[in-house]
Design brief:
It is a single chain. The protein has 405 residues and is of the alpha+beta class. It has 3 domains: 1-175, 2-Layer Sandwich (Alpha-Beta Plaits), CATH 3.30.70; 183-234, 5' to 3' exonuclease, C-terminal subdomain (DNA polymerase, domain 1, Orthogonal Bundle), CATH 1.10.150.20; 250-398, Dna Ligase, domain 1, CATH 3.30.1490.100. It has helices spanning 2-5, 20-28, 54-57, 67-73, 84-101, 127-142, 154-161, 177-182, 194-202, 208-212, 216-223, 225-234, 267-287, 320-334, 369-386, and strands spanning 12-17, 37-39, 51-52, 78-80, 105-109, 112-116, 146-151, 169-171, 253-264, 290-301, 306-317, 341-353. The strands form 3 sheets. A 5-stranded mixed β-sheet has the order 5-6-1-7-8. Strands 9-12-10-11 form a 4-stranded antiparallel β-sheet, with helices on one face. Helix 7 (154-161) links the parallel strand 7 and strand 8 (169-171). Helix 5 runs antiparallel to helix 6 (127-142), helix 11 (216-223) crosses helix 12 (225-234) and helix 13 (267-287) runs antiparallel to helix 14 (320-334).
Length: 405
């Protein structure tokens, strides 16, 4: 039984997004998929590589490499500037997905987080079940992949997530920690840099196992107090406290957007996508207990012209029906012209936490709110039990890109 493996132990998950910036660029521009993408600027710039796709890594390109060197190694690469807003938006989307499964989420950078799943993993069929559910949600909703490591503490979880990238999943129960660590080269230990590794190698310490069995006084003499800590880390000691610092309350809006694989002006496909996006946004509002009263529509045409429109309601809402009605009205009033659509986005702003009493105060004139809320409640219940994709609206079948929203 899996529970016995983790008896009286924390269960810490580390999520590391795969080539995050480059993956986002490939998601937004499908023509870049399968190509070596290098994020950080032009080959002539004096900057360094922020990240690169796995296709570019096959040429020897890596993060922190000067752009000129990256161009020498990969002259056929696609070089793009960084886009902070775009990456930050996707980072928050990932955090929101994580918070569906555990409220104990600690971001450590824009593309990686720790999650304490100790008290929730059994709800999702165990450690493997919750990890796969999260990976599927990220892939399905955001179109990018993540690698996950699960272990009794942050140190081992982080090392586990990096051991089978991309799109990996490695679970290290407490009784397998030393087996996992000790066979690896000492430079793989989190916190051991190239200079430290060289110094350790010169003393005959080649593997993490060698380091684990080394003399603490000897290591202290070499590295000071850090040396003693390294011995403990090599034996699998590490921090297991996840400090939750991300809170949905800080958000000012909730949104979802999609770039079509091919620009389109097919009205059925566009309406199907609007329904899909409205459903996604309303679902996320309800998951976090929020409602909003400003509905926004974002449209990017094939010539990259950007249109944004907003409609403010007199009451707050969290239903797909409300969001769809007004985004559809705004679309027909402003956007259905000859130029095809490249991207659609739907968001709800002016959000607040709702109270239970708020359910009786909705008087939208075009739709019986109670019926809509009963449908939402049933759909939410099914999704919570069986996954986000278990039920959807039939009309979204017309949305040709549905497999990678």
């Amino acid at each position: 039984m899996e529970e016995s493996k983790w008896h009286n132990k924390k269960i810490i998950m580390h999520i590391d997004m795969d080539a995050f910036f480059a993956a986002i660029e490939q998601k937004i521009c499908p023509a870049l998929q399968g190509r070596p993408v290098i994020v950080g600027g032009t080959p002539e710039s004096r900057g360094v590589v922020s990240t690169c796709s796995y296709e570019a890594r096959n040429y020897g390109v890596h993060s922190a490499m000067p752009m000129k060197k990256a161009y020498q190694l990969c002259p056929d690469g696609v070089f793009v500037d960084t886009s902070g807003d775009k990456y930050s938006y996707m980072s928050v989307m990932v955090l929101e997905i994580l918070q569906r499964y555990s409220m104990l989420v600690e971001p450590v950078s824009i593309d990686e987080s720790f999650v304490d799943i100790t008290n929730v993993y059994q709800r999702y069929g165990g450690t493997d079940g919750i990890a796969r559910a999260i990976k599927t949600a990220i892939k399905t909703e955001l179109g990018i992949t993540a690698s996950i490591g699960i272990a009794p503490n942050k140190l081992v979880a982080k090392m586990a997530s990096s051991s089978q990238k991309p799109d990996g999943l490695v679970i290290i129960p407490p009784d397998e920690v030393k087996q996992f660590l000790w066979c690896q080269p000492v430079q793989h230990l989190w916190g051991v840099g190239p200079k430290s590794a060289a110094a350790l190698n010169s003393e005959g310490i080649q593997t993490i196992g060698d380091l684990a069995q080394s003399s603490k006084p000897k290591l202290k003499k070499m590295f000071g107090i850090v040396g003693e800590a390294l011995v403990g880390m090599a034996n699998g000691d590490g921090d297991s406290d996840v400090r939750s610092v991300f809170n949905m309350r800080d958000a000012k809006s909730v949104g979802h957007e999609h770039t079509f694989h091919h620009d389109t002006n097919d009205i059925d496909t566009i309406m199907a996508l609007l329904l899909y996006l409205s459903d996604k946004v309303s679902r996320r509002l309800r998951l976090h207990g929020y409602e909003g009263k400003t509905i926004r529509l974002k449209i990017r045409k094939s010539d990259f012209t950007l249109l944004t429109r907003a409609h403010s309601l007199t009451v707050y809402t969290d239903t797909e029906k409300d969001i769809l009605k007004y985004t559809r009205d705004m679309f027909f009033a402003n956007a259905f012209q000859k130029k095809p659509i490249r991207l659609l986005g739907v968001s709800v702003g002016n959000i607040r936490l709702k109270s239970q009493n708020d359910y009786d105060n909705y008087l939208i004139d075009y739709s019986p709110q109670k019926t809509s809320r009963r449908i939402d409640k049933v759909m939410d219940s099914l999704r919570e039990k069986h996954g986000e994709s278990v039920i959807t609206f039939a009309r979204t079948s017309l949305f040709k890109d549905f497999d990678s929203p």
